[in-house]
Amino acid sequence: MVSKVVSFCYQVFSLPLLMAFLGVEKYAIFAIFLTSIGWVFWLSNSLSPAVTRITARNGITQIAHRVYLAAKKVTFFIAVVAVVGGAVLTLVQLNHQVMSHFNLHDVLLLLLLSLLVMYYSVADSVRQGVGQQHINNLYFSGANAITIVSIFVIAKMNWHESSKLPLAIVVTYLPLFIIKVINTFQVNTKFKVKPLTHTYNPKKALLKLLFGVGSANLFIQLSVLTNKSVVSFFVIDASLVEMAKLDIAFRYFTIAGTFFATIQAPLWPLLTNAYKQKEYNWIRMWQLVLTIGFGVISLVLFAVTYLYGEQLFLLWSQAAVVITQQEIMLMSGYFLTIALNQAHIILLMGKSDFAFIAKSLLIEAGVLILLIFSQQFEQSLLGVIQALIVARIISSLPMLSWKVWYQQRGAALES
């Protein structure tokens, strides 16, 4: 719970501090940097559930020990490829308006720090597998707290304009890197792993196991990352101000969705056990609670943003950008679809139906790409939210709803 509170505070307080420090245009560049770097983490993050699951089943046995070492080597390989590819793609895709605000050193600095963070993140999965997620949460909370304080400190000092973007990158990633190095050192010491001297060549079977277990998570992350990347590059090609507004919208979705993530963590294993015990009445009760509860929360949020949204977003962005009432209403409408999807996803996770979740979200990402390239939507926050809503309503939302209904119907017949 403490980690979620700290993460919540980070999302809330880092925005106005960074906006005041960087200004709107540099903040937009910073936001597109973070979106682009998500592709660097994508393949590596897919290994996390595999390492966690294998470690949880076997403890630090020989196979889990080998998985840990193999995952680190695979992560390092992915990181090197991603750094080179990421630098090239970033420079190719960004237009002249964007390019005028940064240089190659900023890109390389971000890629280097993300590489190091990625390589030292495997230990987090090992800790989670042996029931020490609370230690991961403690470390992550510490990194977020240090970052918030660092942003506050540098924002109060006078810096040359050319130094601001790299400074923002450093204070965002350096604390996380340091914390992960400490965590990795402790895990390596506890489980007697020597990553710098121990040699182990991952075999094909082991790599297949790693990517096989994490494949559904891989595609779920791909869909989310695709959605955000497509709309971000679509908007930034037209306006840096609209890109800054879009990032504010995504932060708003993250903050408002914190409650859903808080519910998901403890409820997931309970639902899994209920399916095993065939307690279908209990599951149906939770289906009703989640669907109605998440819907009501979304409607309450809709009412609050309708009454006070413009003032709140103006205050949050330090009056750097103006988000209109129409944009806020559409954002609230999209959040309702997020809430309904999340209720269905939690129920399907209890059934371990990750493949269908991934399939639904990938179809949504494909639909969104088609909508964006149809050129029927404005290159603005308003146009993007409209495209996101349409893509979800005609793809993942009905698919996930049908799957949950079909499973409950089958359970009713079985009982």
Automatic annotation (TrEMBL):
Keyword entries, A-Z: Membrane, Transmembrane, Transmembrane helix
Domain of life, source organism: Bacteria
Record keyword Zinc present: no
Residues passing through the membrane, by range: 27-44, 74-95, 107-126, 138-159, 165-185, 249-271, 283-308, 328-349, 356-374, 380-400
Protein name: Polysaccharide biosynthesis protein
